[in-house]
Amino acid sequence: MANNTENTKAIHWGILGCGNVTELKSGPAYQKTTGFKIEAVMRRDAEKAADYAKRHNISKFYSDADELINDPEIDAIYIATPPDTHHFYGLKVALAGKICCIEKPLAPSYKESVEIYEAFKTKNVPLFTAYYRRTLPRFEQIKTWLDNNKIGEVRSIRWNLTKSASEQDLSGAYNWRTDAKIAPGGYFDDLASHGLDLFTFLLGDIKEVSGYSLNQQGLYSAKDAITACWLHE
After folding, report:
1. Which fold, 134-232?
2. What are the CB-based long-range contacts (under 8 Å, 24+) for 114-117?
3. What are the domain boundaries of the chain?
4. Which of 87, 98, 101, 138 could bridge to 128 as Cys pair (CB 3.0-4.6 Å)?
C-alpha cells in the first residue's frame, strides 16, 4: 500500500517579514509541521533576509515582496509584517491566488479586514489569521463541554486584561506595536485579540458591540485603555 504521507505534496511557504514572531513562534512551528516547507523569506533589508535564511536553512530570500509573492515555486504566503501593511500585502496575495496566513490582527480596521476577506472569497482561496490558542487542548476541552451542555448555559462573561508599562514604554523608545499609525489598537490588538478569538470560538460570532477607547497614560500614541460590551449570536 502506498504511503499517503509520501504522496502528499508539501505546501511551499514564503514568509513576508522576518521579525521576532517568526524567529521565536511561527517560523520554527512551520518548519516542524508535516507537509510544510519554508521555501523563501522576504525582508526589505537584504542582508538581514540573507542572514535569516542562512540561520534557518531556507534556500531563498528576497528584499522585494512582489518577487516572493509571485515566485512560482511558492504555494502559500505567511504575512508577518506590522498591521498597517496587512491589507496592502493581503490583497496582493489574493490577486496571486495563493493560500495566505496573516498575523493578527487581520488588519487595523474592520473595513480593511472585510476587504481582505472578500478578496480571498472572490478567488476561492483559503485565508487564515494566526490565532492558534483555540487549538490548545484546554480550550478544545471547554468547547466540548459547552457543546455537550456539561457546564450549563453561558449567559455572561467578564474579562479583564491588563499589562504593566514595560521599560521600553516608560523610556519613550520607539515600538511599532504602540505607534498609532501602524497599530492603532496598541497592545489590545496584539494581545487581547487572542481572547476575543477564543470567545467567538467558544460562544459564536459577535453580532453587536459597543465600546470606548482612549489613551490615558500618554506613554505612546496608540490606545492604552479599551472597554467594550458585546453580544454573541
Report:
1. Dihydrodipicolinate Reductase; domain 2 (3.30.360)
2. 115/87, 115/91, 116/86, 116/87, 116/90, 116/91
3. 4-129, 134-232
4. 101
The answer to whether the peptide bond before residue 105 is cis (omega within 30 degrees of 0) is: yes
Is the pTM of the predicted complex or chain greater than 0.90?
A: yes
- 63: exposed, middle or buried (C-beta count within 10 Å: 0-12, 13-18, 19+)? middle
- CA-nearest of 142, 107, 130 to 194 is 130
Q: Which fold has domain 4-129?
A: Rossmann fold (3.40.50)
Q: Is 124 helix (H, G, I), strand (E, B) or coil?
A: coil
* Band (4; pLDDT cuts 50, 70, 90): very low
pLDDT tens digits along 110-166 = 999 999 999 999 999 999 999 999 999 999 999 999 999 999 999 999 999 999 999
How far apart are the C-alpha atoms of 227 and 102, rounded to whole Å? 26
The torsion region of residue 15 among left (phi > 0), alpha (psi -120 to 50) and beta comes to beta
Q: Is 171 helix (H, G, I), strand (E, B) or coil?
A: helix
Residue 204 and residue 147: Cα distance in Å, rounded? 11
Strand pairing report for 11-16 and 99-102: unpaired
